[in-house]
Amino acid sequence: MDARFTAEQEEIRRTVREVLLKRCGPEEVRAAVRTEEGYDGGLWTTFADQLGLPGLALPEAYGGIGCSTTELALASEELGRALAPSPLLATSVLVAPLLLALGTEGQRADLLPRLAGGRTTAALAVPGPHLAMALGLTGGNRGNRGDRGNRGNRGNRGDWAGGGRAGGVQARRAGGWWRLYGQVEQVLDGHSAELLVVAAHAGGYARSRTLLFTVRVPAEGLTRVRQTALDETRPRARLELRDVAAELLGPDEETGDVLRALADAGDTVAAVLAAEAVGAAGRALERTVAYVRQREQFGRAIGSFQAVKHRLADVYVAVQAARSAAYYAAWATSQGEERVGGLALAQALEALRTAAAEGIQLHGGIGFTWEHEAHLYFKRAAGDDLLFGPVHRLRSYAADSARLFERGEEEEEEVGEVAV
Q: Region (Disordered): which ranges (predicted)?
């Protein structure tokens, strides 16, 4: 394994950073989140037309660039540094891999070029606060191949989508079309996306199975309401579906393929999110270091005090360790390895929360005001922890999947003999 980045990868990082430095400072971020879309449409057009970010990891056959998860993670790291509100995560990281994995050739040819060109944005609607479980990050979701670390976990059947009884979204056939009923909360960029991919239960309780459906917006019977979120740079929406026409994603109703595709997408999502969190943590640390060099107490900069140096040194070590884990996860995911991203994401989210919290503390009184930009990073840390974690569940599931705390058969026999 060569850990060095290629010249092309470094160019992607440099180009994205230059654009963001010019057009995405703290004031621009605050202005963007107040718009109806929740992001800067002009900046998104620049990303799509000049940088090709929406199609960075999509095949060239569908209008993409054909890069790997590593390139997408590097670009996301720069977006994280600036906390840039953007539909890139929802469109290119959450939805595009599902269309690529499950869609028919007609669906791919129709939808993927639009996403790759930035002409259409998309959102993944997973009922309830179960996005991390649906993506296989905090619960078993490996489809028919099973999940040895969670053999008894009902999430293997996709029960996070509503259980086939109440709640979530229900789907039924009607005259050659599928119709969706239900409500979904906390849909990332769901208020502005032109394409929705909705997870729903079909077959009732007896033949309950989780399927994915595409809904083109606007759609009759669909109501979308933007919700108040702790982290305004991650706009979310509530979707209400009342007899909404939808198209099944894929050629058939093989639920195992759906669950497996979600879990595979989860590995990529976690790696990209880890890189994004590392970018935010690194920038929060940089801002704090610059401040403690200027702020003076007792006639000297507070950054010269040993206690402050030790605190920032601990943050630096945490950020660098998280960065290494994120880079490895991006590489490993592009090589087809599984269950790597979750641990990297846990470490990155923890590093971001630490860096943001120390930044607020070391900025003193001004750091505790909501108007200060340090709170943007703290809100991102808390918001991502709620949406894709929490950290302890990411680690717990990774440990269960690796069977770290399970006794082997030989050990159980020995314990049984001793007991007798």
A: 137-167
pLDDT digits 0-9 by tens, 108-158: 999 999 999 999 999 999 987 789 999 999 986 654 434 433 333 334 456
Residues 249 and 212 grouped into a single domain? yes
Distance CA 206, CA 191 (A): 34
Single out the residue in 88, 120, 152 at which a domain terminates.
120
**Long-range Cβ contact pairs of 128-132 (< 8 A, separation 24 or more):** 128/160, 128/162, 128/167, 128/168, 128/184, 128/185, 129/185, 129/186, 129/386, 130/160, 130/161, 131/186, 131/188, 131/387, 131/388, 132/266, 132/387, 132/388, 132/389, 132/393, 132/394
Q: Which of 73, 88, 120 is the last residue of a domain?
A: 120
Looking at residue 403, its pLDDT comes to 83
Q: Which domain holds residue 223?
A: 125-257
| CA 131 – CA 139 distance, rounded (Å) | 10
- Do 220 and 318 lie in a common domain? no
d(CA 51, CA 54): 9
Instruction: Give me the chain's average pLDDT, please.
Output: 88
Helix axes 255-294, 69-82, angle to 10 degrees: 40
**Predicted TM-score (pTM) of this structure:** 0.90
Higher pLDDT, 415 or 248: 248
Distance separating alpha carbons of residues 280 and 234, to the nearest angstrom: 14
Q: Which residue has the higher pLDDT, 231 or 408?
A: 231
Phi, psi angles (nearest 5°) of residue 301: -65, 135
Question: CATH number, domain at 194?
Answer: 2.40.110.10
Angle between helices 306-334 and 69-82 (to 10 degrees): 150
Report the pLDDT averaged over residues 271-281: 98
* Structural contact between residues 131 and 139, judged by C-beta atoms closer than 8 angstroms: no
246 and 371 share a domain? no
Residue 229 lies in a domain: yes
